[in-house]
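Readers outside the structure-tokenisation community will struggle with the description of the input data as it stands. I therefore recommend that a typical entry be quoted early in the introduction. An entry of this sort, consisting of the sequence and the corresponding backbone structure tokens, reads as follows:
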Amino acid sequence: MKLIDFFTDPILRAPMVGSMLMCLAASLVGVIVFVRKRSLLGEALSHAAYPGVTGAIVLAGAFSFNQSLQFLVLFGAAISSLIGYFLIDFLEKKLKVSYDASLCFVLAFFFGIGITIASYAQNTYAHLFRQIQAYLYGQAATMTDMHIVIYGALALLVIGSIILFYKEILALSFDRAFAEASGMAKAPVRLLLVLLIVAAVVIGIRSVGVILMSAMLIAPAAAARQFTNRLSRMFFLSAIFGLFSGFLGIYLSVLFPGMPSGPMIVLVAGTLALYALLLAPERGLLIRYWRAMRFRTLQMQENLLKMLWRVTLQGKETLSFSMIAHGQLCSMWRVRSLLFRLRLKGWLKKTGSQYQLTTLGVKRGGQIIRLHRLWEVYLVNALGLGVERVHKSAEEMEHILTPELERKLTELLDDPKQDPHQQPIPTLQEVMPHV
């Protein structure tokens, strides 16, 4: 099957395009929910929509509204979600119930009502019970071109609202006090945000279901957050991740028959979020761990280089491995690894079983000592710290001071010749440029 078939085939077109539009709208609204730290609100409102869905289907069965069932379900879900939201707001602000307790109450109470109505429908309108199940777990495969029109209109509404009220959303999300003082937090704007959240929930439950809808709101936004600190870029990236989740979820559900489309969409979105949380260039957990380990290795090899520099200064130009490893706080394997790294950088050479600093190694070791002692002078002379308190800080700072900071410290301290412990500070002429 060709890729273009998913957008042209009469059977595949509606599930593919409809799900992508749903994921697009949900991922954009999810950014608002995410940055306002209301991630569980989507979970509560999606479950709160269930009584509206089941009630609408029962009404359709009772009054034979089969022709307008889709619109009736969307309307019922929207009304039920709005009631759930205002009940959460009432419990939190009027009855002083905590926010998380209000969410749990509304989620459980409304979902219980929905289950009760669904049980009634199963016995009374058995032919409509499958419709109810479709909204509970999602069933994108039965979408029609009418769903494309509905979801496309709602997606355009979400995009247009975000563009028109971007400044208000930005202010309400990050500086509520400023938004209220400047008039950006007016009731119509707050109501618009609520309606956008409800719209995202309503258009999503047909594809991924009531139970999984909150994941579709949060996963693309959480993934986008790992790659940027700007709200506009976060909206863009979240939209891309949402579209990709909808596309790949439907594609995989068709490629592997029997795999449900809704959970597959959420699985793709969750995988993207997990990948971003672990491997994003700046914020990814594994990347940050790797940078920390790399910096720790740099510290250890520079500390070893300082030790070799001091020994060389005392007249011992060559050292055996046992002499170098003595007193080190790491394993023998680690010491050998550090020595190998120093040799690769040209700072150390090995002759037989003896190690000796090269000219570059002597200069680099002298520069680390220079940075250490310059920082000690700065702490004592500029900040007034006691001499006994500066060594630990200098041990940390010597590895991260840049050439610019070194130059500024030299100018600020008038190029000192001794540190607070009366130890000589290597001059610029004695050390090589920072590398």
